Amino acid sequence: MAVSRLPFPLTLTGDGIILREWRSEDLDDLVRMLDEPEIARWSPMPSPFDVEAGIAYLKRCYQNRVTGQRIQLAITTDGGRPVGEVLLFGVDLGLREAELGYLVDVHERRRGLASGALSVLSRYAQDSLHLGRLLLRIDPRNASSTAVARRCGYRLTGEAPILQEGPHGSSRLDTWELVEGQSDGRRDRQKNVAARRYGRRT
Ligand SMILES: CC(C)(COP(=O)(O)OP(=O)(O)OC[C@H]1O[C@@H](n2cnc3c(N)ncnc32)[C@H](O)[C@@H]1OP(=O)(O)O)[C@@H](O)C(=O)NCCC(=O)NCCS
User: Fold this and answer.
1) What letter would DSSP give residue 111?
2) pLDDT tens, 8-46?
3) Helix (H, G, I), strand (E, B), or coil: what is residue 105?
4) For the domain 12-197, what is the CATH code?
5) CA distance to 1, 105, 138, 160, 179, per residue, from 95 (Å)
6) Pocket-testing residue among 110, 115, 134, 192, ligand 1, by greatest number of atoms within 8 A of Cβ
7) How far, in Å, from the CA of 49 to the mean position of ligand 1?
8) Please, which pLDDT band fits residue 187 given cuts at 50, 70 and 90?
9) For residues 163 and 152, what is the distance between their CA atoms, to the nearest angstrom?
10) Rounded CA gap, 46 and 85, in Å?
């Protein structure tokens, strides 16, 4: 049965990645990372993202973590400096589904970090939280995010796009899904993200 309260604290490892809880000492790294045009364009972050926004963000994150509402973890390679974030939210226990999201520091992109982090959290959501259907909402113009979804075995559903207005333009979010009992091929692709991750550094 799916859990009713998401576990806290949590550390998840795999694919050369360590996902850990955010800490107050991460404030400077968080502000530097989130105050970035692509993140402002494709995610619902305040922009500009300043220290005040960072403090509010970490506070809300902590509240959501202790109350078991969300999983919101810093992406790291060694448990230290954060290089991104991956989230699980909007858990529907009746439908056994939840939505996931991710972002990576502009200086750390195209190293497989988002794919690795999404794979690790998706596996945890399926195997430990027993969520049967995982969802991503992505604007088709966001090429890097759709590539991450595909690489982790998610597939595009035929659901109607969700229209969203943001400070930097409108978005039409497609729904992607990863369903329990997926084909072995897809599971293998998810597991093999790490191997490909080390094959490319640009
Ligand atoms: C989307 C995002 C998280 C991807 O992070 P990342 O760590 O660079 O992703 P990965 O390295 O795992 O990339 C996986 C694949 O995406 C593709 N990709 C990455 N960046 C790309 C780009 N700019 N254009 C086209 N494809 C891209 C590549 O195919 C890559 O695999 P490859 O390098 O082996 O070919 C990052 O670009 C980001 O933070 N964007 C802003 C926030 C955002 O859009 N979040 C998602 C909202 S839905």
Assistant:
1) S
2) 999 999 999 999 999 999 999 999 999 999 999 999 899
3) coil
4) 3.40.630.30
5) 11, 33, 21, 19, 12
6) 110
7) 21
8) low
9) 24
10) 16
For 172, the 3-state DSSP assignment is strand
Candidates 72, 106, 107, 144: which one to mutate for ligand 1, based on the most atoms within 8 Å of Cβ?
A: 144
Residue written as token pair 């994150």: 61
Pairing type for strands 97-104 and 133-138 reads parallel
Q: Find the Cα–Cα–Cα–Cα dihedral 17, 21, 25, 31, rounded to 10°.
A: 80
Instruction: Map residue 196 onto helix, strand or coil.
Output: helix
Give the Å distance between the CA of 89 and the centre of ligand 1.
21
What whole-number distance in Å separates Cα of residue 18 and Cα of residue 201? 19
Distances (CA, A) of 112 to 19, 27, 54, 102: 14, 24, 25, 12
- Map out the domains of the chain as residue ranges: 12-197
